[in-house]
Amino acid sequence: MIKQTPTDILLERAAAIRSKKPDINPGLKDGLTGSALVLYCLSRQTNSSQLEEQAGELLEDIIGFQFKKFSLPFSTGIPGIGWGLQYLWEQRFIDGDIDFILEDFDNTVREVLTYNTYGINILSSWVRTLFDVIGPNPTPRTVS
């Protein structure tokens, strides 16, 4: 019996996620965005070009989706995806004009918060999620 390495397991998971089109979950928690984050971080830690390549393919899938069809919870929707892309940019996994990359995300979130009565409930949900993720007193970081 051949034992799988953690890298093999991650690559299989990424391939399985990508094969579920069109029912693919682009979200941060259990979908493409979260998987891309993990693969990018591990690629840097292990110096694995294979993991980095797979993470890049997941990222292309994320950016290629029709964003207006997604939900708004932070863990599964557009805000979490946007946060994940921002994180990847801040950590220098991806480059480019982050404002341009996130423009569609920002416009969709702004539209929902402006034109829907449930915008305040969504906003308070995001704040609770952010406190869960980063805690009440995050350490400020600068990108140099």
Summarize the structure.
This protein is mostly helical. The protein has helices spanning 6-18, 32-46, 49-63, 78-90, 98-101, 103-115, 119-134. Helices cover 62% and strands 0% of the residues.
Description:
The N and C termini lie far apart (about 45 Å). It is globular, with a radius of gyration of 16 Å. With about 140 residues, the protein is mostly helical. Helices cover about 60% and strands about 0% of the residues.
Determine the mean pLDDT: 76
Spatial extent as radius of gyration: 16 Å
Poorly predicted residue ranges: none
Q: Major sheet: size, sense and barrel closure? A: none
User: What is the beta-strand fraction?
Assistant: under 5%
Summarize the SSE layout with pairings.
Elements: H1 6-18, H2 32-46, H3 49-63, H4 78-90, H5 98-101, H6 103-115, H7 119-134
Features of the shown structure:
single chain, 144 residues, mainly alpha, 62% helix, globular
